[in-house]
Structures are given as C-alpha cells and as structure tokens.
Amino acid sequence: MKYNSVFDIIGPVMIGPSSSHTAGAARIGKAARNLFGEQPKWAKIYLYESFAKTYKGHGTDFALAGGLLGFETDDTRMSKALEIAKENNLQIEFIVDSAAVDHPNTARLVIGNDTDSIELIGISIGGGKVEITELNGFELRLSGNHPAILIMHNDRYGAIASITKILARHEINIGHMEVNRKDVGKEALMVIEVDQNVEDSILKELENADHINQIAKLVS
Amino acid sequence: MFRTVAELVELAEKDNLLISEVMIRQEMDVKNRSREEVYTEMEKNLQVMEDAIEDALKGVESVTGLTGGDAVLIQNYMKEKTPLSGNLLLDAVSKAMGTNEVNAAMGTICATPTAGSAGVVPGTLFSVKNQLNPTREQMIRYLFTSGAFGFVVANNAFISGAAGGCQAEVGSAGAMASAAIVEMAGGTPQQSAEAFAMTLKNMLGLVCDPVAGLVEVPCVKRNAAGSSLAIVSADMALAGVTSRIPCDEVIGAMYRIGKQMPSALRETGEGGLADTPTGRLLKEKIFGMSV
Known about the structure:
Largest sheet of chain A: 6 strands, mixed
Strand content of chain A: 25-35%
CATH class of the largest domain in chain A: Alpha Beta
Shape of chain A: globular
CATH topology of chain B: 2-methylcitrate dehydratase PrpD
Radius of gyration of chain A: 17 Å
Radius of gyration of chain B: 18 Å
CATH class of chain B: Mainly Alpha
Distance between the termini of chain A: 16 Å
Largest interface: A-B, 42 and 62 residues
CATH architecture of the largest domain in chain A: 2-Layer Sandwich
CATH superfamily of the largest domain in chain A: D-3-phosphoglycerate dehydrogenase, domain 3
Number of helices of chain B: 13
Oligomer: heterodimer
C-alpha cells in the first residue's frame, strides 16, 4: 500500500500553497540532498507535466530549493529558499521539459559539487507523499516509508554477502531489498529498506566492504 | 491493516470500537509507537489547524491579492444578520475558506488530505464543536476518523488534483469530514460510511482547474462547498438515509472518473475556469507582475 500512516493523510504540517507541488517538492529536494550526502553546489532540475505547468504559482521552485537546503515542509524560510540558496552558493537551474512521463508531478534532479554528482527522478503522489523512482539510471521504488541504504557497487561475487554480513552483525533487520545492475559484471545498485535509521559509523563500515563504490542513506 | 471502508467498518463493529480507535490502533501497530506518541502528534496537527483559523479570522491576503478576507466577511454577516443556511453551516464555510486563505497566503497549515483541500476538515470541526461540545480528546479523534477514511481513498484511488481532479481533493476531504462529524455526533461506524459515500457521490466529476495554476481560484470557495456538503451528508446519515451505492464502490467510481479526466482538467491550469477570458487575464496580470 502506498500510504501506510494516518499522518500521510492528516499531515504534513506545511507552508502553503500545495501539498503535492510545495510540500512534496520540498521532500523530493531533501531526499536528493540526503542521497547526495551533503548540500550540493549546483542543481539542474527538470520539471514535467503539472509540475512544469504550474511550478511558479505553487512555489515548486522554491520548495525544491528548500529541500536541497535541508528544510522540512513547515520551515517558515521556505518561500525565501531561492534567495537563501544563492547566499549559500547553491546554483539552481530550472528546466521545463515537455517529455511524456508516467506521473503528472515528476521532477528529475541532477545535483553535484566539484567532484561528484547524482541524478534522480522523484514523483509527488499526493498529500505531500513522494517516491524516488530512479537513481543514476537505475529504476527503483523508494517510498520513504522506511529508512533505506542505497549502495552503488560492482556486480561481483560476494558483494551482497559482504553488506548483509555487516548488517547482521549490527542486528539491523532488512525489511525489503532489491538489486539492479546495468549489465553482467558492471555497475549495480542495492536498495535496502531497514527498520531503524542506520548510524554513520555503520555506513563507513559498509563503504569499506568489498566491491562497494558509493553509499547513501535515506532517513524516514 | 484495513484496505476498504467495508473492512474498516467491520473491524469497528466486531469489537464495538469507534472508527477513530481502529485507526489509532493500526497506527500504533504499523509504526510501533505508543498511544501517547500517536496522540501527541495528532494534537500538534489540531493545534496548527486551530492557529490557522485564528489567523484567518483576523484577515489574510495572498501575494497575488486574488484571495483573502472572505472568511471575515462571512463572520461579520453572521453577527449582523440571520444567515439563511444557519450559523453552524456558515461558520464551517467561513473557517474552511479561512484556512484555505491562510494556505494561499503561504501560511502554515496541516494538509488534510492535501493543502488545497485543507480547510474542510478543520472548518467543519471548529464549527460543529460549538454545538456538540466535544472534549479535546474527541476533537483529536475527529482527525483520526477523517484520516481512516482518507487512508482508504489514498490507497484505492487518489487524493491529488493532478492525479484525479478536485473530486480527489475537496471530494475526499468533504467525505472524510462527513464521516468524522457522524462519529462525533454519536452515529455508528456504518452511518459514517453512509455519510462519506453521500458526500463523495455529490463531488464526483469535479475537475481541478486553478486559475494561473494557483491554489486560490476556485480552491478557496470549493472548500466552502466541501464543508457545507459534509455537514448536510452527516445529517442525512444520522437521520437514517443510506447510500444506494456502497461506499467502496463510490471510491472506485471516483478513481475511474479521475482516470478518464484529461490532463487539462487535472491541475495544469489549462482548462475549465483557468481557460475563461477572466481566468486567462488574471494569469497574465499575475505573472506580468512577477510573483
């Protein structure tokens, strides 16, 4: 089920005017920031369909910026987020894209700093709830209902076992897991939904495991 | 976990529980949280709603100037005249519109189930409360009952205008409020379901056609429609009127209608009222002055 809490329906507390276009957009921005691991220096944000047609009126632009700055949906600085981003040396470019997409409220974000970047697609499904449906070209379905660890790794023997062994030792239970790869022996993505937020020290340990390239976490 | 209104009502009836209690227990179970934690979070939402209404009744105006001040006009009218539709109904309308005026002015609100429809549930609650005199706990329960019904809609259909039109937003919000009013007034879980069905039936087909793509025109006044219909349907259900089409089937109809709606009528600001001469003119004026 897409919605699993009463607070998805009665909530979130937020700055208006739209739960999909403002609160949801802020949450997509924040998820992107979390997945990148720090505040990016630049962002290219592509908007589609209803996001593309109404982003100015709904404040989708400042909400996405607010999310990238780490704002929660009820942060009163939200409507000033574009200015605050500039002050914080975060350069954001918005691009209206007319390509057909699966969901009417879709945004594609490419964010990065001088050395690294990530690309992801987020959809805002209603009432402020969002899903991340693509990361670095890998399809996924990340609801944000649970904390998650995302691991870019090489498709090699033992890569998955090396990760699950560490999680088991720290008594972290895996609720849902999926593995995707570009081709045999090439880049792959592991998405692991867990029951509790994972400490940074454990993430460090995971990062040093065999065949692992990059790790990100999503806090629920 | 309940998936349908039928299952929700059955869970309540089987153990002689209120709908709100079924929702509270499910939230505790799924999220592994204590009753106190769940209650406290909902109480915070209630407080946000109360504060938004208070702000609205002092008078607010949106950045564009398109909306604001109507809640105050209605309150003044109620003091000076005897409203034809009655004080309770008009008070709900004023508070629902007021909450949405605060939303349009980029104030703080609680989405119920969305921001565009955020006036209906609190508007009805803070009006009905003057006649039913609920405890604070019962007011919190009102939100859990609304949430329980909204939960079913969100998982079986949609609650966003971009996905399903205004019927999915104000339609859902009005129907949720109907069900909660019935519980607060002492009706049965089944009567809540009947009230929900009757409100949503009368909102089917409602499109999302915001002028200039802004959550202002006609959103604020649609919150008036949703809240007044919520109260009327609740009264009908409490009187013993039932819906010939069962609640879950009405939700199914809402979903199929939304699927058939063209994108111009789903929050793109391209069709309906947005595409009237005045709607287009307002859009030009607003974006000309760079909002």
